[in-house]
Design goal:
The chain has helices at about 10-25, 80-90, 110-120, 140-150, 165-170, 175-190, 210-215, 245-255, 325-330, 335-350, 355-360, 375-380, and strands at about 40-45, 95-100, 130-135, 155, 195-200, 220-225, 260, 270-275, 290, 305-310, 315, 325. With about 375 residues, the protein is of the alpha/beta class. The structure holds S-adenosylmethionine (SAM) and iron/sulfur cluster (2 copies). S-adenosylmethionine (SAM) binds next to strand 3, strand 5 and helix 12.
């Protein structure tokens, strides 16, 4: 069993130092920027490190077996704590919050958290964009209450339509039909913006790309193809298993003509392509696809995402070895804690210069037994 990534720095000392700095030089603003002038716009919150699937690219069974030590409940941020932290992020520029995990729908009474987050307002009085990434296994049961609690978008992960391929990928024998039921339930509940994420692994599910595109074309659901990433240190990643997005677009375009769509939001991870109609122009009724080329065309340049782990550590990059312990700050009884937290977050963001994916190709190859300390996707949130 592998241990969870233990941050190397002594967090208590670090936070004390951050506080001293933050009061001195980085009073919170409503538009904090990092060293590369990237704003803070998107917060991903992992609400649990547990999952009922065992996708080999994320939580391989050999590592996340029955003896795996998940975080005890007392380490998890409570909903009130999550909301309190999220409020500070929104004050500093965050406009979009995504709940993730592990499998977020395994966290009991998640609707209560959604209600609290949906009530947050930006400094100019706007509601935030609230979304969730889920494996869809519990969505058919929960779609209506999630919508009523304030969820306005959802991303459902589905890696194949072929039953055998999908079961092999989730590795718990979970059927495709149940996930599709979840997507239909989300549509019926009135969740207007639904996306489907497909992680594509060469030689595993790449032959499903066309079938998935045909299935979702014209349904109002945007399908997004994600390159298999080297997150964490347990998924046996290697470049040979990555199917470059360019190949996917080329293949699809041969069967279902595509036209490039403009960027719809700064910091958007997906490159968007629309299905073309007979005129050769994008025909909106046919919908669109997206490709997320995290490996072959890194998009660190405008990365505006922060991640809050299940136990309240702030990560400024999916590949950051260390997280900053905000929980410790939260659990101190101090009336100025919210102000301190905003200052600390601002200060951490202002020092950020992460661009792992851009640098990946330039990194020297690692020797046998050498590995970089990277958090697991199920812990940090995708
Ligand atoms: N359990 C939920 C789910 O699967 O949608 C939410 C958490 S999951 C970590 C978030 C997203 O990360 C999913 O769309 C998943 O497919 C993606 N993901 C996980 N490991 C990945 C990897 N190694 N490469 C690319 N995407 C990955
Ligand atoms: Fe679970 Fe999502 Fe990871 Fe699959 S990708 S193991 S569903 S957390
Ligand atoms: Fe953002 Fe880090 Fe991913 Fe680059 S590698 S896009 S900085 S999370």
């Amino acid at each position: 069993m592998l241990a969870r990534v233990i941050p190397l720095m002594e967090h208590r000392q670090f936070v004390e130092r951050q506080l001293a700095h933050s009061f001195a030089e980085s009073l919170p603003t409503t538009d904090v920027r990092d060293r590369l002038q990237r704003p803070l716009r998107d917060l991903r919150i992992s609400v649990t490190d547990r999952c009922n699937f065992r996708c080999a690219y994320c939580m391989p069974k050999e590592v996340f077996g029955s003896d795996y030590q998940y975080l005890p409940h007392s380490s998890l941020l409570s909903f009130e704590e999550i909301t309190r932290v999220a409020r500070q992020f929104v004050a500093l520029g965050v406009r979009k919050i995504r709940l993730t995990g592990g499998e977020p729908l395994l966290r009991k009474n998640l609707e209560e958290l959604l209600v609290q987050l949906a009530a947050l307002r930006t400094p100019d009085g706007q509601a935030i964009d609230l979304t969730m990434t889920t494996n869809g296994s519990l969505l058919s049961r929960k779609a209506r209450t999630l919508k009523a609690a304030g969820l306005n978008r959802v991303t459902v992960s589905l890696d194949a339509l072929d039953e055998a391929v999908f079961k092999r990928m989730n590795d718990v024998d979970f059927p495709v039909a149940k996930v599709l039921e979840g997507i239909e339930a989300a549509q019926a509940a009135g969740i207007a913006n639904i996306k489907v994420n497909m992680v594509v692994k060469r030689g595993v599910n790449d032959h499903e790309v066309l079938a998935m595109a045909r299935f979702f074309q014209g349904t109002g659901v945007a399908l997004r193809f994600i390159e298999f990433m080297d997150v964490g240190s347990t998924n046996g990643w290697n470049m040979d298993a990555v199917l470059p997005s360019e190949e996917i677009v080329r293949t699809l375009n041969e069967h279902m003509p595509l036209v490039r769509l403009p960027v719809s939001a700064a910091g958007e991870t997906a490159q968007r392509w629309g299905y073309a109609g007979p005129s050769g122009q994008h025909l909106p009724s046919l919908g669109e696809i997206g490709v997320i080329s995290s490996v072959t065309q890194a998009f660190c340049g405008d990365c505006n995402r922060a991640r809050l782990s299940t136990e309240g550590r702030l990560f400024t990059c999916l590949f950051a070895g260390q997280g900053f312990d905000l929980r410790q700050l939260l659990r101190r009884s101090n009336p100025t804690i919210d102000y301190q937290m905003a200052s600390t977050i601002a200060s951490i963001w202002q020092r950020r210069s992460d661009r792992y994916s851009q640098l990946r190709a330039r990194m020297p190859p690692r020797g046998p037994g050498e590995s970089m300390s990277k958090p697991e996707m199920s812990y940090i949130g995708g």
